[in-house]
Structures are given as C-alpha cells and as structure tokens.
Amino acid sequence: MSPDKRIIRITHNNLNEYLKELAKEFRRLNGTRTPAEIILIGGAAILANYGFRDFTYDIDAIIVASSAMKDAIAHVGDKYGLPRGWMNADFKRTASYSDKLFEVSVFYKTFSNILTVRTVTAEYLLAMKLMSGRRYKNDLSDIIGVLWEQEKNGKPISREAIDGAVALLYGSDAVIPKVSGELLNTLLAADDYETLYRRTRDEEIESREILNGFERRYPGKLTGENIESVLRSARREKPDEPKKSTLALLEEKKRLVNEAKQSANWADAPRRRDDRELD
To answer: From CA 135, how far away is CA 25, in angstroms rounded?
Structure first.
C-alpha cells in the first residue's frame, strides 16, 4: 500500500481499539457460533510486541474466519476512515510467507469472546524480515529494532535461534538475501542499536522517496527486479559525496576494531615472551 499523508496510521496505541471494533462487528455479522482467529504479521506484530516503531499503514495478517470477516473489515475501515485493505493477507504472495507461521504463533489477546489474535515471537519476526530484506520498506530497521529491544529487556536473540527460525519456517536449505545476511552478521556484534536504528530508518525513508519519484516520472516501470538498480543509480547521480550505508559503516568499524586488536597482540607479543622466559 502506498503511503499517503491523508491515510490514518495504525499505531501501538490504537491497534487494540481497531481489533476490538473488528471483533464486535464480526460478532454482529457472524453471530457467536463460529469464532475467528487472526495472526498479526510484520508491522502489526512489531507494534503489538515492541515500542520502537511508530506506526504501520496496514495490518498484514493470516485470517481464519467465515466470509463475514471480509465485511467486518470493510465496515470498521469505513467507520474509522482507514484505507481500503487496512487489514489484508497480501503478504502470502511474498518471500516472507510460510505455512508454518500458524504453528509457531503465540497468543496475544481475545476480543469480544469471538476473535482470538495471535502474533509471532522475536526469532520468527527476524526470520521473516531477513527473508524479505527490502531496503525501501521497514525490514532492516525492524531487524535492528527487535534486536535492540530484546537486548534492552535482557533477552538478547542468538544467531542460533534466528537460524533455527529460518530453517523451521523456510526449510533447512533456505537462503536469506545477501544484504540481510551481511547485516545480521555485523549487527549481532554491534554495541549501539539505537543509533543504527535511527540511521537505517533515515536510509529507508530516502529510498522510498527515490522510488516514489521514479514511479511518478516513469509510471508502471518499477518492478521487484529493478528496484535495487534504481536506488543505486539515483544515489550515484547525487552531486554531493554519497553517504555511507549503515552496513558499510558497521563493516568499517568492525575492520578497525579487528586491526586494533591485531596491533595490540603484535605489540604485546615480545612482552609475553619475556614473561614466559622469566617464569
């Protein structure tokens, strides 16, 4: 869904209000005999479980319900001025979808004794975001944000847990996009997630502006296959020196730290040898 300033945003504070209204409307249309279940995915799952993200424009979800749910979603959207398709299952057509998501989901809340809402936990959110790896959406900043809040809460996520989630959702031979893998390797050794998060959000916003401008100039020409080349070309055309990406800065910092360690080891080697001789 294309962002628009007139579109009402779904936030951490109003998410439950919309879900509550959806449950009431579904109950009115459907009755009480057949309950419904929804699994929040992506941005909505981030909003439900974390505080670093401000909003999302729509709710990606797995919806298990009678046909009345479609009408209930439309009615709630009309009532609150939400965009058409404010809740949808379109993500099922993306690389981040897995039919294993239902079994790994966890309980979130029940509304009006008719609608059970579930979410996915950190390692599976990370696996999905890594598999998607879009630099013009919120994927990379969401990865950093989840790692950041998990660390703040004293529950850091290990590489083993993330690899296990990727394997469970997508198979043991699944390969995440290169940019996602490189970012993850470096992030797990990072020490300032907050700064990285804010910088990456700025980069994502810039990327989205570039792509929106391209789409305005060349309607219908932007595809999943040419997005990365459009972004690279646009940044090369800027007259000022291009800003290093978050990943490049992290890699540079990692290299400098390793060089410093090597220098320290080299300088300390004769002293350690002399110490052994004295022993």
So the answer is: 37
